[in-house]
């Protein structure tokens, strides 16, 4: 954060007037006021802060401080994690996997997915902290404002530029830069990237609006989100030279990281190093999270050493570093990192302790976990709302039922209404703790208060029924929720598929597997599911099932040599000869390998199977 602003991020600290003035001035600079002389630089974003008579802005000190313009304006917001079409019950609670339904082999996959979620939390949280309370600021005032109009556009097809022009045609004064910046920030927070980008583009066309590097960084980030990486690179290349500085480079780096382009990101880091743009931890943090999400943990230490030569790690660096230790199950290193953090006089936050607690739980050091989770709770406030969910899941993993209920009560007392993610977290906690009646009660409560019909919540209860092999109850439950207007998702059908796989009911699981696949535009293949399905089909020498599964996979655009071999194996086991397999493989553009030939040779002498079953 801005070295002025960060004082404000410590809720328990009294805020001195000096700090307030600092933020004020820093914020003013972010709005592009050209106000000599230079007062100082924001340590985080290097925005130059100017001194100036405060009367010029015409609104109160306090109001401006709440905006945190300085850092929020300069920092490109990381994109929220994209919601892939199929996620096995993605639970927002830290590093937990709920679906015990999936066999243990799958834990590695779950881990990778959870790391993604976790990194997203780290990034989101740190950004959230940088723009606390902007909502309150922007929604004050009431009446008809340009901001209100732009925020109410909602549909992407509507144009922000048209709205601004109309505003001016009605005789209003041209919007000031700080107002537009604020609107852009609000729009980004609502993920309304197209409208935010249109406002940015409008600003660049105004002669009397002076843009600073931070504005271009935001602009670049929006282009990445709306038009993609190529456009962002082009935008960067076309920037005026003096704007191709530290901030826009960081934004481009962030774009590479979001697109998982390790080589490009590394090349850009080299360039940034040559230009001496690496004097703050932000770009390094981008790189660390890139390495972690790619499993390149060995590079994490190296980049941290590099960071230390140029600048000092911040709490995000330490949290990422701890995450790397946790992934390696390396308790000793993690403890050393915590010591180093304390020595650097950096205040650990809830994420620091959440990561440590997770690690201790994995290490079966429940006593240490108990003490770190207390530290974590001590750093959990209204502002760090997502931390409550993490607390729930950590206490659940430690089997602390009383604490889980206590935290839930605390949440209910602190917030007007629990959101869907929080219900998901609590319901799955209750399920994990074996309190099924409690889980069902809470589900009913959610049904009565939420109104979102979010199928992810239903999926938690459904998974619990299916886990307990209560397939009939699960089916009834599913019918019931559909009648209430919940739309089943891929996960819903995949859960049923797993449930009937466990029961070895070929007809049923194929039925649900077909439903699962037709519920998504593009299926991202789940190898484990396919293998298990073929395994059970083969066990039962169920050649019709094999044909049907092959047809489903073909529809989903997922046939390959391995699939055909699994398919043939069923025929071998059944002692039957499949028809025109080589022709079918040719038609599907699938190559035959040695195993295919071996299996074909084996079936050659067997009797012919029923021709009518073959679906093309
Ligand atoms: C916990 O960590 C210690 C120290 O790294 C290690 O020796 C031990 O095997 C770990 N225990 C488990 C259960 O992972
Ligand atoms: C929690 O924080 C308070 C002050 O902020 C401190 O006095 C107390 O010792 C802390 N508790 C724990 C368990 O760290
Ligand atoms: C399959 O059989 C043919 C002839 O019967 C033989 O030439 C070929 O080597 C066999 N292939 C495999 C992989 O066993």
UniProtKB/TrEMBL annotation:
The chain crosses the membrane at residues 17-35. PROSITE patterns: PPR. GO terms for cellular component: mitochondrion. The keyword Transmembrane helix applies. Belongs to the PPR family. P subfamily. PPR repeats lie at residues 314-348. Pfam families: PPR, PPR_2. It comes from the Eukaryota. Keywords: Membrane, Repeat, Transmembrane, Transmembrane helix. InterPro entries: PPR_rpt, TPR-like_helical_dom_sf. The keyword Membrane applies. One of its GO terms (molecular function) is mRNA binding. This is Pentatricopeptide repeat-containing protein. PANTHER family: OS12G0527900 PROTEIN.
